[in-house]
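Lab meeting, action items carried over

1. Structure of the two-component assembly. Owner: GW. Status: complete.
Input record:
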Amino acid sequence: MSRVVKKTPSVCTDMPLNNAEVCAKLHLMKELLRSCYGPTGRLKHIRNNIGGRVTTSSSSSVLLPALSSSQPLLNLIKSSILNHISRFSDCGLFAAIFCLSLLEHVRQHELRENLAIKVNKHCLSLCTSYLQREDCACRVKVNFCSSQNLMTLAGSIISSKPACLLTEAEKHHISTMVVRAFLQTIPCSTPGPVTLGHTVTVTIVGLRVLDSAVFPGLLVEMYDPFDQTDSSSGPLRTVLFSTSLAGDLAELGDGTIEVDPDVDTDLQVLNQLLELGKQLVEDEVRLCVCQKVIHPVLQQYLRSHGVVVLERLGMALMEPLSMLAGTQPVATLHARILSTAYGRVKNLSTKQFGFKTMLHLQPEGEAAVCTMVLCHRNETMLDELKVVCQKAEHGLRLTLKEPSALLGGGCTETHLSAYVKHKLFLLLQGQQEASESAAGLGCSPAEFLLGVKVFCRSLDMVARSLEHDGGTSVIDLNHAHHWTVSAGATKEDMVGGLGLCGCGLVENSPSTKWTFLNTEYAEFCPAPLLGDSCRKPTVLDSFTAKVNALQVAVETANLVLDVRYIIEDVN
Amino acid sequence: MRGAGCGMSEFPDLCKVLELSTVILRSIIRDHHIRQAVMLKSVTANQQQYVGLQELSALARTLQPFIGPQKKYRFIQNVRSGESALTCSCFCAIQNLEPTCALGQLVCETLQEHEKIYHTGSGCLMFLAGAWSSAALLGLCQGISVTQIISIMNEGIEICLDAVRKSALLFNGLDVRLSRRSTAAVHGLELSLSEEAFCVASNLPFNFQAPPAKVYQQAQNIRGQRQIKLSRYFCENKSEMVSEFETCSFAHIAEGLSHSCDNLMKLAVEVMQVQSRSNQDITTVTFDISKVTTCVLFGLPEDCSCAVPGCIVLLSDEQVSVFHHLKTKRLKVALIDGDLSHSYHHMGFKRPAGMQHVRDQPSVSESSTEDKWVKKVVKLFLDLGVNLILLTGVACKPMDQNCCRNQILVVEKLNSSVLRTFAQSTGSALVTYPSQLRDHCVGTGVQLALWRDLSCYDRKLVPVNISTEENTGLVTAILTSSVQCKSQLQQDRFWACAYRLHHALKDRALLPGAGRTEMFCIHLLQKQAQNCREKSTNSVPPSAAGTAVALHTSVMLELMADGLMDYITTVMINSGKMSKVEARTIVTRQLQTFDVHQGNATKFPQLVLGNENEAFVFPSRKQTECAPAVEVYDNLCVKQEAWRRALDLVFLVLQTDEEVVSGLDQKMEKDTMML
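Predicted assembly:
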């Protein structure tokens, strides 16, 4: 008997951005993410109150999924940033901070929402078109003839996460490894459309970071290393199973079956497995790999016939392995295996890393699969290192699509902000044009100016977020690059001791003029650096990821600004 | 409680013990209280004023009594279950406390990781984590930024680890410094040699900019160089050297590593000697810990502990009769990696959820499927002629009984590494299911023997030795104890000793112990701090930023040195013979006089168990007047790792400013902000 419960009416929030509670939550999230940004960012412990493992990280891909909120607007922002991360890996924090500060600044300056949306769009298109231009001063061409830019790009991404706790030498080692792994996944001699290979990451706790290495081919952990042969060479016929060979009836699904108690289903499945084993031996298979568990009896049978058995491969390694060996994963044990499903592996050898024994599978031809073995002293730091390395590798891959990188260290942000301001100034000088474009947006020039200011402030805010130790951010009035002044520094220090800008491209000279980033400053045209400068940038960001992050941030902010009502079903 | 432990002999401390454990208990209660508040909300708890660092140093302070060779025992009682545990190790204490806060868990994880690999040194790790987190806190109070603290402390630990590497005493079968009977001339020669080798080797990490291949080459060169030098040296003194090692040096190393755990270290050495009986040469001796098992016998006096080749197990009453039947025979053995029961399945096997057994006619046979299975398996055993079954899991009751009836002995819960050793030596193979057994899986040549007749102590104690004809390297350490609650402690300490020995043989190096390495590091840190201070005052041109950095460096390095100083003084205080002031004075005096020698760690006198010439030393009771003092040693890699891990932990906590907690009750939490 069911009881009829009266439904509670839905809750409707009008103008959610005017709600103090919502704003406080947005602010909290902004401060939380802001404090994680950059190489000196702070870490967060992430845990569940009921217990379990504590994760320590400052990476957006770890943090954001852990932030669950009751506020739909926050979840909207979160999911749009997470979507960006899943596609580009990098610049997640940038997008989140920029989006949240746009929202906050719009509210602080009491800008009308629809106006803010239009101005934001205008500024965004200004930025993206500038970034695509040949003469863009904050973009660097990635030269594939030398590894230098690639190394810098990888190094910047790796040093942006302090939880890895790497020394300079270790950073260098890891960035070299990442670049090497990236280069190994590019096939050289394949005609036709090029498919990039895979980099598989294997982690080992307890070894030194400098023990990390890249290997061509695949390294697979062996859970039962005692019964295996040491190495076998010559092409080995390989079969790969994606179905479980554990001898259970896992393929049943949710349905029920009725069985006579005298029927031993286990035995029947086992007989089926042994049938399969017999076929494998007949077909002269030398290596049998399974994604899941293999029944010990089958293992014993195969081993007694000289087949090397690898079980519990895991989902992640399935694709790289079938690529390496050229196999078709076998998904059932009830049909004969076609000879086309078999693949080949050049040779096998075992490698020992600390307590782990790995089986090294090498491809016969060029398969563009490589394994990155990452080592660190403790699990927390290793987890972060793994995230960062994958991020860096993805960042490098994006350069193939668009061989450019952006200046890091906050310089791109300040430069863009100065550029947008300057453009606006030019616009306002030609009064006619300005009022036209303002009218086009449906606002007065003053309002338009305010909107642009909000946009620029928010960009500056991201650059300022890089500083966490009480220092102040300044911008030079020549190239509009970003500099940091440490907390205790005096005026004299600023003249003589600032060294290099955030990206390492501009050197301090006595003639340089500065202004604090959080103050109003007169607009100027950011001068491009002269081509003869022999200095190379030391911090680079992924171009594709950053441009997309910029778009995601502005569009998400616009979407949130556009929200008039929130209707929640509270039943 | 009086019989509970030797450390309890200091009775005035007992009150303190109880007081402390109540503090710990209270924290458990509070944690539990919070635990009950569960709601699916995410919360960010602000950790202002560096609560994390404060908590870390407070936690380390409560665990202070576990530092050093003279440990104090603690009871840890669980109010909910009423269980209590007696412990004297940091790791044990933390595990028993089951921390629920983020920091506690982080500490627990770090200690677990360390303990899993090294089995010793977690006290040192914990203490230094606490001491260095206080150092970081003081640094923050003086306005030094987090980034700076991290880079300076990294510099500090590099100095320390470098010093540790330099102070290491190699004993590649050649280093006479470990044998006390060497002549002075030989002493000097070897000292310079090994130091030279080490200085070059320790430069390696700093040459990192060179391409890897080059570094590798360099490393090889160094090794080659060292070998040549040493081998020349070896030729000159061969006969004399070898004899010295066999007679003295190993016992000497073990004595130095015992850290006041003499009897258990003796046992560990015995175990090692039994294992490598055929192999007396120290250059190749290794200690394979995976082949060592322990067997605890209650009711026997403690001095009955000994090492026995083979694997010793205690048999139950039913098994004894089977044993008597089998003891004279050469047995056939089956090795099963898993349980011996009908319902057992290998890992990864999923039982189908929707399986129903339906019968269309009433069952004819009485026996259940399990009985049938047992009969089938026993028949298989009998057909194969198996008399002994070794299991890593357990056997089900009917199986056990059936086997007993058929004179088959089933031994349960053995280590899988022990099983593998048996597999190797008997030519058998490990299987998961008994149905896998074939003729070639069954091994032969195993014997059972009563190890010792202990019926005078306890009729139920029947220790039986399972061994093979050839030497497998399997050794059982028999730990005897008349007090049951001490057995865990004894086992822990035995394993700590065994692992210390194992690591020493693996490293082929030792560190001068009893505070000597630490004092050397303190000295170097202070010297570096002094240099920085001088640099800051004499810098030309004077730049405020540069001066500040140099000043901060000197402050932080001093603070780090203080942390190490705290460590040695705590060990001295724990020995119960001096106050904090006395301990500090002694250490400071030593550091002041040290500058003149400009030597390395070995030049420092031992602090805690030192020689009698020094005023501050406590003569060990065992020593006679003429015998030279016991030299104390530490493990090289354990110390390096413990220090590094301690600092890593501090860095993680130092850099963390907030905690993201999910599943909190909104109303319960005051200092949190809800997202």
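2. GW to write a short summary for the group page. Key points so far: DSSP finds 16 helices and 22 strands in chain A. The first strand of chain A starts at residue 11 and ends at 14.
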